Amino acid sequence: MTPAGHKQVGAVMETYFDGLHHADSTMLRKVFHPQLAYVCATEDDELYLDLETYMRRVDGREPPAKRGDPREEEIQEIAFASDRLARVSARMTMMGRDFHDLLTLVRHGAEWRIVAKVFSYVPRKD
Questions:
Q1: Domain tally for the chain?
Q2: pLDDT tens string for the chain (126 positions)?
């Protein structure tokens, strides 16, 4: 993929991390596809949600930024399968947990959008 493609997906990820840190569903809606599949793959906490259900959960949580939680996030890999399909492996810490996200992105019009968020977490070890 072109450097411009990497830059575009990187910008999606920055908005994604900001939206999660601030528990801002308006911001997150800019990066999620309307048909989002949200899947928690953590043992004993499996969960499958659609976009609207997930956004209600985001709106109901205290933002990590408001609690003063430090931001810890990292894009581990961006891989393009085509000019319309990409995968991002990312890591972040929030709400006392270390998360590993596998995100599938598709072109939605002229923009990249996250169509699948599959993740697992473990309690944070301080």
A1: 1
A2: 667 788 999 999 999 999 999 999 999 999 999 999 999 999 999 999 999 999 999 999 999 999 988 889 999 999 999 999 999 999 999 988 999 999 999 998 889 999 999 999 998 876
Q: CA 50 to CA 56: how far, in whole Å?
A: 10
The DSSP result for 37-78, as a single string, is: EEEE--TT--EEE-HHHHHHHHHTSPPHHHHTPPPEEEEEEE
Separation of alpha carbons 41 and 34, rounded Å: 21
* Structure-block tokens of residue 11: 């910008």
- CATH classification at residue 110: 3.10.450.50
Place of tokens 């953590």: 42
- Taking alpha carbons only, the member of 4, 2, 20 closest to residue 101 is 20
pTM: 0.93
